[in-house]
Specification:
The chain is α+β, with helices and mostly antiparallel strands and 286 residues long. 33% of the residues lie in helices and 30% in strands. The chain has two domains: 155 residues, Ribosomal Protein S5, domain 2, CATH 3.30.230.10; 126 residues, 2-Layer Sandwich (Alpha-Beta Plaits). The chain is globular, with a radius of gyration of 19 Å.
Length: 286
């Protein structure tokens, strides 16, 4: 069979509320998650065993050993499918590592989807959901691959109402932030869920709704990595930016624009001012 290749798009938390904490220490979340038309890429070919090769601008930040999330996802699906063969997997790593945009989770989800296509296998919903959640809190929504409200520890996924077309500028100052460290540093009360049912009519209305919500991890991330503050300020200062916010536990931040020309201009200006930052612009996938 010919190679199967799938994109692993960047995950963006348009808002992220920490709503509680379970007895086992896991935090409960409420988040609106979308995906951008930029990301990593997974390509697979049938093989007797699983192997992983990585390339791309951020491949050096990863270890291709057996604990790599892509290989864990592949082995997990093989177990669900009852298969003893494997696949050669190539991961082209275009997204920064440990950056709050779900790169590893998206890679794992794309691996699962690619192998299901290769093997012509569609598992029952329950074992597939258990596999995804066992790999990480963001893997289930990355597997769904559509704008969604996410709750619990990542297992509760509900399709979002139709969202308007927006363009995203993504910026990362080159700082990797530990997600557990951010959660540990978070202070303050828990937030309430903030989902909405009515589709926002345009990007301006969506940005206004999001401005009434927060990323509850932003203050902790900024305290741990002050360059995030500079990134947020730089995005917010660009003409046409409707909202600037950090995604996930950072350090990647995003700006919402309703015009691709403004998004392109913002990215170019920030790239000139901060040549050491990772910057890109892309439309939101709908």
């Amino acid at each position: 069979m010919a190679e199967i290749a799938l994109d692993a798009p960047a995950k963006i938390n348009l808002y992220l509320h920490v709503t509680g904490r379970r007895d086992d220490g896991y935090h409960l979340l409420d988040s609106l998650i979308v995906f951008a038309r930029v990301g990593d890429r997974i390509a697979i070919e049938p093989a007797d065993d699983f192997s992983l090769y990585m390339d791309g601008p951020f491949a050096q930040g990863l270890f291709a050993g057996p604990d790599n999330l892509v290989l864990r996802a592949a082995r997990g699906l093989a177990q669900v499918a009852g298969r003893s063969d494997g696949a050669h997997i190539r991961l082209t790593k275009n997204l920064p590592v440990a950056s709050g945009i779900g790169g590893g989770s998206a890679d794992a989800a794309a691996t699962i989807n690619a192998l299901m296509r290769l093997w012509e296998f569609e598992p029952d919903a329950e074992p597939l959901a258990a596999l995804a959640l066992g790999l990480g809190a963001d893997v289930p929504v990355c597997l769904a691959g559509q704008p969604s409200f996410v709750g619990g520890i990542g297992e509760n996924i509900e399709p979002a109402p139709p969202l308007p077309t927006i363009w995203l500028v993504l910026a990362n100052p080159g700082v990797a932030i530990s997600t557990p460290a951010v959660f540990k540093a978070r202070q303050g009360e828990f937030s309430v869920p903030a989902r909405f049912d009515t589709p926002p009519k345009d990007a301006t209305r969506l940005a206004a709704l999001l401005a009434e919500r927060n990323n509850d991890l932003a203050d902790a991330a900024c305290a741990l990595a002050p360059p995030v503050i500079e990134v947020l300020d730089a995005i917010a200062a660009r003409p046409g930016c409707l909202l600037a916010r950090m995604s996930g536990s950072g350090a990647t931040c995003f700006g919402i624009f309703d015009d691709p020309a403004n998004a392109q201009s913002a990215r170019s200006a920030m790239q000139n001012a901060h040549p050491d930052w990772w910057l890109t612009q892309a439309p939101m996938l709908t």
